[in-house]
Amino acid sequence: MQIQVVKSKIHRVTVTGADLNYIGSITIDEALLEASNIIEGEKVQIVNINNGERLETYAIKGPRNTGEITLNGPAARKVHRGDIIIIISYGIMDFEEAKKFKPTLVFPNEKDNSLT
């Protein structure tokens, strides 16, 4: 049997932008992507702490060390600049493997989304 488990999580980052006219996705600072083990194009779930909204989209790489977290396209209607969100990705694995698996969890500074 295979199950879906948390693979990666960027916990409590501040949204820096919302661009309704972009094609879609979430732009994430490249340093945060690397630290969290999320790759460009990977499906992610966004949980908005401020309003309880949950949505799915895919990650795209933003400029490194800028702290950029921008929701693009229709997702821009679900967040506002300054909202705090959690970004989660999931993996599918065998049940026994999942018992031993340890996800990559990142806890950036909420003020500037930096890793320090």
From TrEMBL:
Modified residues (Pyruvic acid (Ser)): S25
Known catalytic reactions: L-aspartate + H(+) = beta-alanine + CO2
Single biological process term from Gene Ontology: alanine biosynthetic process
Active site: S25, Y58
Cofactor, free-text remark: Binds 1 pyruvoyl group covalently per subunit.
Record keywords: Autocatalytic cleavage, Cytoplasm, Decarboxylase, Lyase, Pantothenate biosynthesis, Pyruvate, Schiff base, Zymogen
Compartment(s): Cytoplasm
Pathway assigned in UniProt: Cofactor biosynthesis; (R)-pantothenate biosynthesis; beta-alanine from L-aspartate: step 1/1
GO terms, molecular function: aspartate 1-decarboxylase activity
Broad class of where this protein is predominantly found: cytoplasm
Chain segments annotated as coiled-coil in the UniProt record: none
Cofactor(s) in the UniProt record: pyruvate
Annotated substrate binding sites: T57, G73, P74, A75
Record function comment: Catalyzes the pyruvoyl-dependent decarboxylation of aspartate to produce beta-alanine.
Similarity comment: family membership: Belongs to the PanD family.
Protein name according to UniProt: Aspartate 1-decarboxylase
